[in-house]
Design a protein that fits this description.
single chain; alpha/beta; five-stranded mixed β-sheet; 27% strand; globular; binds methylmalonyl-coenzyme A; binds adenosine monophosphate
Amino acid sequence: MRSALNETSPDHIALIDGDRHFTYSDLARRIDGLAGGLLAGAADLEEARVAFLIPASVEYVTALHGVWRAGGIAIPLNVAATEPEWEHCLTSAGVTRLLTTEANRESIEKLCERLSIPLALVDEVAAELPVTLPELAPERRAMIVFTSGTTSKPKGAVTTHGNIAAQISTLIDAWAWQSEDVIPLFLPLHHVHGIINVLSCALWAGATVHVMPKLDLDQLCRQVADDVFTVFMAVPTIYVKLIDYLEMLDDEEATLVCDGFANMRLNVSGSAACPVEVFEDWRRLTGQVLLERYGMTEIGMALSNPYVGERRPGYVGQPLPDVSVQLIDEAGAVVTKEDTPGEIRIKSPTVFREYWGNSDATTSSFKDGWFCTGDIAVIEDGYYRIMGRSSVDIIKSGGYKLSALEIENKLLAHPEIAEVAVVGVADRTWGEAVAAVVVLKGGYDMTLASLKSWCEGELSPYKIPKHLKVVDSLPRNAMGKVMKPSLKTLFD
Ligand code: MCA
Ligand code: AMP
């Protein structure tokens, strides 16, 4: 199958990483070198799991494509995660090798030693070129992305080379990607939004990506004001942060940045619901009509407002080409009428193959060949609108999907906590913010600050509760189940 790296303009700039510029042929050389180094004379990595802990950079791109080209399964790790979280990914996926950079080596080398996983620096694993690389059939497994859900531990969603090609090519067509495009990449690279929608689409199209290790609004807006970018993709939280930032700037500076956004050909929002207010504020400030779309780790992108045509605030548009969508009502019947809600189910070449090592979870997430998303939607006047999720245990904070159960399990290890329930509460910036309701063991007292500091090193920073309520008991129904919806009102 075709390489995920564009081969038509070898001298075009593919990646700008700080002061370093890399053409498509520079990248191809690095990737082939790493693939050859990983193979070390073998013909094919035969789906060996190779994880990497690398921030957005040329080294990240080399690792991702290098593992693919050598026939391995790429597992991008969250650079901001904690050791127990990395350990779960490495052990549950049976990782046999880990790639990192000098700057990140120290944070993970002890864990690798303990788990007997060989660790190498990307730059040190290069073979002399030319190398012979394996032919990769589309059904071969290519990547595992860990995603939180209704289980306490994140599950590894496996996509094949064919799934990834389908996820990319559908967006190339739908959003008119072209080699003249230039896009900033500040999203985390352990999730589909950053990996596929931004990085992989750009490199497939022959476009240019500016990689940034993290979101830096000053630097980003300076470049926007200089008209560096043609396309911009972000989660709603980032649009909220940009709106606040623009409102802080003096008029002259704000106008330059707003004009920079206005001059782009496309601004996309996704990963969480974009509030209508944000959509309207963005249009008022920049003149850009945000294109909102809907996707999921397991399915790539499924629904999108049109590139050409009306983009409706509060709606996620229609199915992308080759994506079949069904809404299923509570009785299990296919919804045939507009204005009737149902669970979104998807059938498409973009849908993942399985959860790694978890056939029960894989089987139960499909019904009659359709992937069950757990998201509820309705069609109104031809446009899909997401109404919410079927599970109260999933929280969307700043675009990250968090499992309330995972956070509760961790908090239960706190020596002073007897019982805990975690819920998401509405938040202007984060969409939902993590809130913990705890019952303490006798005689103890707890502040949010002390809970936060206990969580450090245990949970990724974005999973740490932002609100805390200490109560005498948790409200439970006749079955003994905590009534979570009623807990949300404690934070009104
Ligand atoms: C940072 N913090 C957060 C979050 N991010 N708290 C809750 N939720 C978050 N998402 C906290 C930090 O722990 C810190 O807390 C404080 O906010 C400032 O941290 P900082 O790192 O400076 O924040 P930031 O750089 O402004 O990060 C915000 C962000 C980031 C850029 C919006 O969260 C982000 O990149 N989100 C995107 C996630 C994403 O790509 N999701 C896609 C998955 P303290 O001050 O207490 O230390 S969904 C997906 O892939 C599907 C397929 C799809 O549809 O797209
Ligand atoms: P993840 O599993 O991290 O890939 O997150 C996917 C989830 O994000 C979906 O199941 C939805 O709940 C949510 N999501 C993504 N895009 C949107 C959107 N435009 N509006 C509402 N929810 C969204």
